[in-house]
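Example 3.2
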Amino acid sequence: MTYKIYPLDLGTFEAMETSNLLYQVNPGVKVRQPILAWLILGGEEPILVDTGGSDEEWAKQYHHGLQRSSEQTIEAQLQKHGVHPDEINIVINTHLHWDHCFQNNKFKNAHFYVQKKELMAAVVPLPTQKGYYETEIAGVIPSWMETFDRMKVVDGDSKLREGIELVHLPGHTVGLQGVLVETKNGPYLIASDTIGVYENWEGNDKLAHIPQGIHWSLEDYFRTFEKMEKLGAKVLPAHDMRVLEHEYYE
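Structure, written as tokens:
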């Protein structure tokens, strides 16, 4: 079984902090980067990886500004590929930060695959990660919790379907998981925020690979880089405009 991977453009962060994307690189420099999800086609049914962030008002009030046009809604992005949210039975949440799972509740028939360690961390996060999990907003149920009753808990690396594997990649969060997908031209790893932009994986003159500034454990992060090297897959980042230069990956 081989698949095609379609990036979904779910909005734009207008001023992402570079040092959040690349540890200790260009602090204070702001960049414009997308919020991405991924649609995997070619199997028996469509599979969605992540569901994106909130609308503009919510982001402005509780997080930081983003822009999202009518063409960047999850419904519009899926419609481009002839898929309706009600046809999605499998959603893979790479992790439970708000900009990756906020629209889970749009998928009424889906189960949501999430790592056990990620779910535990979302309930009791590190102080530096409370905002990303939305656990510190008085009177607000975190977006990931709205579909708690339909979560399928995964503990470590796991085969989801023939040609699709869930790969535990701790570092950015303790329970982040990537999605390893077999395609016509070899495997791709949807690496989520382990690799926010291509430079995280490509490195610089000091580091072979650069962690994100937002992380749970640097020690885990560097072990994850070693694990990714052994996979031998092409890597797809979570917040890089260059991803959208291709309609699909295969």
